[in-house]
């Protein structure tokens, strides 16, 4: 290829220029000539597992759920913008996730672990639940056992004050109405919020059954809108625990469910959580969602997520909204009500979720999760490890030191042993390094510590090819050949050995890339590019440098080798 010396030099310079431009453009876009992996720039390592403490899922079901979760999580991470994430299935029910260069770890974990079950349900009347509240209270006492009666301290105090029994206060009797009034007054007096309204999202205390409790019915206050109760913020945890009891779910009216709103609401100086009365079955789910986009409502300056449904979903949504004008429809995410707007007119395939004064980042994350799809099952983090930037910088520094020491030793030995030919080999080696780095940048590869090892190994192979060539040239010179003839014969006789060594190593690297994962594939990529570059520089660049060096010399001149 390009037999004339001028054409060969131009070709090498053009190729080097392309690689140099690739490195420059990569640096302009990312701030680094080559993307660095988790072990070099830091990041997050997670091990996730299907959350199935009761072991109700079969091995096949767990494996299928992990496969689907892997696809969903990859879609979410791709939209998050993390470069070269590693998402690998291990065994039947585990995922390993490595995110290099991640800066907001908490946000990443929330996006990865959010189940994202989106549902639309009709809001029902609170009257359908009020008549069942005594039955619910009895179910709670039955579920918690007789000792729970002694824990209902406020009810006991009311019973003593009115000279009646706890059972009469909880479950009705001659003085039930008066007792309910007293219990409500006690509840109103005891629900003073200790957290300011602006700090409503503070972490709630864990439920402690040993503390004094109240009947579930006494935790409910009238809501501001139709179809909802209000629960004081400090009672939210215990009310949620009550609702999760199977006995309470069985005591609810048929076809009715109670779901909390996802954010606290302020009423006067107090903070509450809305508890919605909903139909148990959703008439629409996120499976029919086509697209979701976050934006801000210019009129009310609130964050919204606009969504678009599939054709079937749009028809179903239009039908339900058309039959429920002036009624409320609740939009639920992971079984918490995000919003419950009133239907003013028939709605087709497009709608929006209003997030109030939530930040735009929260709206963007919600839209991202909805677009990526729902996880098939909840996931739990089994292991979390953070690789800090300091550790990554240590790895980079050690890799640079190792590479420079190796290069310096190679340069010293080659020049000392082969003299002028050694200098030409070092010049070719510099072209080799530029080709490898440009190749890695061109394919947008990620460099890891194993990748650095592959790079250094390929440098050794490049030098080895030059050694084979130089030894063959020496043999030809010792046999009395002219310098130009000896160089041509040396390259020709060394060709088969170089091709054999490079091809077998390249096949090994391709096998590692095909069947390896993570760092092993990084090693295989850099090794493969290094082998191709070393083959080119040893047989083409080094020979071009020899031809350039011998240009103008007489046939009787000798070469120092």
> How much helical structure, as a percent, in the residues?
40-55%
pLDDT averaged over residues:
77
**Strand-residue proportion:** 15-25%
Q: Give the tally of β-strands.
A: 18
Report, as a whole number of angstroms, the end-to-end distance: 26 Å
**Main pleated sheet:** 5 strands, antiparallel
Q: What is the count of helical runs?
A: 19
Shape: elongated
Please give a structural write-up.
By secondary structure, the chain is an alpha+beta fold. 54% of the residues lie in helices and 17% in strands. The protein is built from 19 helices and 18 strands. It has helices at 5-30, 38-41, 59-80, 105-113, 127-130, 133-144, 147-151, 153-162, 166-171, 176-190, 236-243, 246-251, 311-323, 360-372, 389-418, 420-442, 449-478, 483-515, 519-550, and strands at residues 35-36, 43-50, 86-90, 94-100, 118-122, 220-222, 228-232, 256-260, 265-267, 270-279, 284-285, 289-297, 302-309, 329-333, 336-339, 350-354, 379-387, 446-447. Strands 6, 7, 8, 9 and 10 form a 5-stranded antiparallel β-sheet that branches. Helix 17 (449-478) packs antiparallel against helix 18 (483-515). The longest helix has 33 residues, at 483-515. It is elongated, with a radius of gyration of 36 Å. The two termini are 26 Å apart.
Structure at a glance:
By secondary structure, the protein is an alpha+beta fold.
Which structural traits does this protein have?
single chain, alpha+beta, 4-stranded antiparallel sheet, 19 helices
Secondary-structure topology with pairs:
Blueprint: H1 5-30, E1 35-36, H2 38-41, E2 43-50, H3 59-80, E3 86-90, E4 94-100, H4 105-113, E5 118-122, H5 127-130, H6 133-144, H7 147-151, H8 153-162, H9 166-171, H10 176-190, E6 220-222, E7 228-232, H11 236-243, H12 246-251, E8 256-260, E9 265-267, E10 270-279, E11 284-285, E12 289-297, E13 302-309, H13 311-323, E14 329-333, E15 336-339, E16 350-354, H14 360-372, E17 379-387, H15 389-418, H16 420-442, E18 446-447, H17 449-478, H18 483-515, H19 519-550
Parallel strand pairs: 1-18
Antiparallel strand pairs: 2-4, 2-17, 3-4, 5-11, 5-14, 6-7, 7-10, 8-10, 9-10, 12-13, 13-16, 14-15
């Amino acid at each position: 290829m390009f037999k004339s010396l001028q054409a060969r030099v131009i070709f090498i310079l053009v190729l080097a220029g392309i690689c140099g431009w690739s490195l420059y453009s990569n640096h302009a876009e990312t701030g680094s000539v080559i993307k660095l992996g988790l072990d070099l720039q830091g990041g997050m390592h997670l091990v996730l597992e299907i959350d199935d403490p009761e072991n109700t899922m079969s091995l096949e079901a767990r494996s299928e759920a992990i496969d689907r979760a892997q696809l969903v999580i990859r879609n979410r991470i791709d939209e998050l913008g993390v470069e070269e994430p590693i998402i690998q299935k291990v065994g039947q029910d585990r995922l390993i996730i490595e995110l290099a260069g991640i800066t907001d770890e908490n946000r990443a974990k929330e996006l990865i672990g959010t189940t994202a079950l989106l549902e639309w349900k009709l809001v029902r009347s609170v009257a359908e639940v009020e008549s069942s509240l005594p039955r619910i209270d009895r179910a709670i006492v039955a579920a918690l056992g007789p000792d729970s009666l002694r824990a209902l301290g406020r009810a006991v105090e009311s019973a003593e004050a009115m000279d009646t029994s706890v059972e009469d206060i909880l479950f009705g009797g001659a003085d039930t109405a008066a007792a309910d009034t007293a219990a409500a007054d006690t509840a109103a007096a005891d629900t003073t919020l200790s957290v300011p309204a602006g700090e409503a999202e503070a972490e709630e205390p864990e439920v402690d059954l040993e503390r004094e409790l109240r009947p579930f019915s006494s935790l409910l206050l009238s809501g501001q809108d139709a179809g909802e109760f209000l629960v004081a913020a400090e009672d939210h945890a215990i009310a949620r625990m009550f609702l999760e009891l199977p006995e309470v779910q069985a005591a609810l009216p048929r076809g009715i469910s109670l779901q909390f709103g996802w954010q606290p609401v302020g009423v006067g100086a107090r903070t509450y959580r809305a508890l919605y009365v909903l139909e148990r079955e959703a008439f629409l789910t996120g499976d029919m969602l086509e697209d979701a986009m976050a934006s801000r409502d210019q009129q009310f300056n609130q964050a919204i997520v606009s969504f678009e449904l599939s054709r079937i979903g749009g028809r179903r949504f239009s039908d339900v909204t058309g039959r429920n004008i002036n009624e409320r429809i609740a939009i639920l995410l992971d079984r918490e009500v995000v919003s419950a707007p009133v239907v003013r007119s028939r709605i087709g395939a497009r709608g929006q979720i209003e997030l109030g004064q939530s930040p735009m980042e929260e709206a963007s994350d919600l839209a991202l999760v909805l677009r990526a799809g729902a996880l098939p099952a909840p996931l739990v983090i089994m292991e979390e490890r953070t690789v800090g930037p300091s550790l990554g910088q240590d790895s980079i520094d050690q890799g640079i030191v190792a590479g420079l020491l190796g290069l310096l030793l190679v340069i010293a030995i080659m020049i000392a042993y082969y003299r002028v030919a050694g200098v030409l080999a070092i010049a070719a080696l510099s072209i080799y390094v530029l080709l490898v780095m440009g190749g890695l940048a061109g394919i947008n590869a990620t460099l890891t510590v194993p990748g650095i090892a592959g790079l250094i190994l390929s440098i050794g192979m490049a030098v080895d090819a030059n050694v084979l060539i130089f030894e063959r040239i020496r043999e030809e010179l010792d046999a009395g050949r002219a310098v130009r003839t000896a160089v041509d014969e040396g390259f020709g006789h060394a060709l088969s050995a170089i091709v054999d060594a490079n091809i077998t190593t390249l096949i090994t690297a391709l096998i590692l890339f095909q069947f390896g994962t993570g760092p092993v594939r990084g090693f295989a990529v850099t090794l493969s590019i290094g082998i191709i570059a070393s083959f080119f520089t040893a047989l083409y660049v080094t020979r071009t440098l020899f031809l350039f060096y011998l240009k103008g010399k007489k046939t009787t001149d000798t070469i120092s080798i």
